[in-house]
Design goal:
It is a single chain. With 352 residues, the chain is of the alpha/beta class. It has two domains: 145 residues, Nucleotidyltransferase, domain 5 (2-Layer Sandwich), CATH 3.30.420; 174 residues, ATPase, nucleotide binding domain (Nucleotidyltransferase, domain 5). The chain has eleven helices and ten strands. The strands form two sheets. It has a five-stranded mixed sheet, sandwiched between helices. α8 packs parallel to α9. The structure holds 5'-O-[(R)-(carboxyoxy)(hydroxy)phosphoryl]adenosine (KG4) and zinc ion. Zinc ion binds next to α4.
Length: 352
């Protein structure tokens, strides 16, 4: 079954085709990085306008790359939320038009759920970080908008078990990067600079680390970095040793907490498989540390490659496949699909 997925929830316009929920046929993304960079963050109206311009060329590129015609597609899947409403609407309307034009079913899926199930897609990953996760698993979705832990017992069966009380980890990366004078999105830049820095140069707080719960808090570390800058002055740009040390020390604190709480969740729930996904799972230190901890605890950690970690449409098509199969023959009412900026897990598809 060939499923075409569309993703437009934030600042990436993406189209992918996935066979049987496992095999990527094509995975195309147009990033709006250049549009938003000078504003230091995503500007919603500009995001919607860019999706409108990019979506048909990306669709054409995907079909061309796959050597497929629209009539070869068996079903469509689209991210219906959470995200920016104006951005989501672009993907939704294109998906509805396409499904209607070739008379195929369409299913709306949850963007966060798609991050959480992205490792169900077959991928060539780094040894130790790949392989199909076995249910039940603990999933950490960690991105610019989310830091959430779920117990995943199957597709559509998720129990929230922990979350951030304030900022998302990606937000902390982006805000600290901004304080340091690094351009948006800051996570990648901090990661790169940290590679040449001393992780022990500064001791930043590991909020809630010693509390026996699965909650996170990242606002304190932001303030700690700001206080440090006020006291010690701003490290020289673009790549002084002082800057690298700050990046490495900040990153280490965030990664320490993410890894500790995620594996604590796995132990508490008696599961051996851990999935980490969302934009921040691209972080090289998070990958390194989680592999170390998994290995020393005889657990398995699954982190897909960057193309499946950051926003992409393969994860939408992959998840959509499972729901399209469940809905088969029941004529899903696609015209009722609407964007929902705060879409809850489990709300879509309605019959699931
Ligand atoms: O999932 P995503 O592409 O978009 C959503 O937020 O849904 O995640 C983007 C976030 C940004 O905050 C970005 O700074 C962060 O992921 N990020 C990273 C890295 N690459 C992306 N954070 C730390 N290290 C990275 N290598
Ligand atoms: Zn995302």
């Amino acid at each position: 079954m060939l499923v075409l997925g569309i993703e437009s929830s934030c600042d990436e316009t993406a189209v992918a085709v996935v066979r049987d929920g496992r095999e990527i046929v094509t995975n195309q993304v147009a990033s709006q990085f250049d549009v938003h960079e000078k504003y230091g963050g995503v500007v919603p109206e500009l995001a919607s306008r860019s999706h409108i311009v990019d979506i048909l060329p990306i669709l054409k590129a995907a079909l061309g790359d796959a050597g497929l015609a629209l009539t070869d597609i068996d079903g469509f899947a689209v991210a219906a939320g959470p995200g920016l409403v104006g951005s989501l609407l672009v993907g939704l309307e294109v998906a509805k038009g396409l499904a209607w034009s070739v008379d195929r079913p369409l299913v709306g899926v949850n963007h966060i759920e798609a991050h959480l199930t992205a490792p169900l897609i077959a991928y060539e990953g780094v040894e130790g970080l790949s392989g199909e996760p076995r249910f039940p698993y603990v999933g950490l979705v960690v991105s610019g908008g989310h830091t959430h832990l779920y117990l995943v017992e199957g597709v559509g069966r998720y129990t929230p078990i922990g979350a951030t009380r304030d900022d998302a980890a990606g937000e902390a990366f982006d805000k600290v990067a901004k304080m340091l004078g690094l351009s948006y999105p800051g996570g990648v830049k901090i990661d790169r600079l940290a590679r040449g820095g001393d992780r022990a140069a500064h001791r930043f707080p590991r909020s809630m680390m010693n509390q026996d719960n699965l909650e996170f808090s990242f606002s304190g570390i932001k303030t700690a970095v700001l206080t440090h800058l006020r006291k010690n002055g701003h490290p020289e740009l673009p790549d002084s040793q002082a800057l690298k040390d700050l990046c490495a020390s900040f990153q280490e604190a965030v990664v320490d907490v993410l890894v500790a709480k995620t594996f604590r969740a796995a132990r508490q729930h008696g599961v051996e498989d851990v999935v980490i996904s969302g934009g921040v799972s691209a972080n090289s230190r998070l990958r390194e540390r989680s592999l170390e901890v998994a290995t020393s605890n005889s657990m398995r950690v699954h982190i897909p490659p960057l193309s499946l970690c950051t926003d992409n449409a393969a994860m939408i098509a992959g998840l959509g496949y499972h729901y399209l199969r469940r809905l088969e023959g029941r004529g899903f009412e696609a015209h009722e699909l609407n964007a929902n900026s705060r879409l809850k897990m489990g709300a879509l598809p309605p019959e699931a």
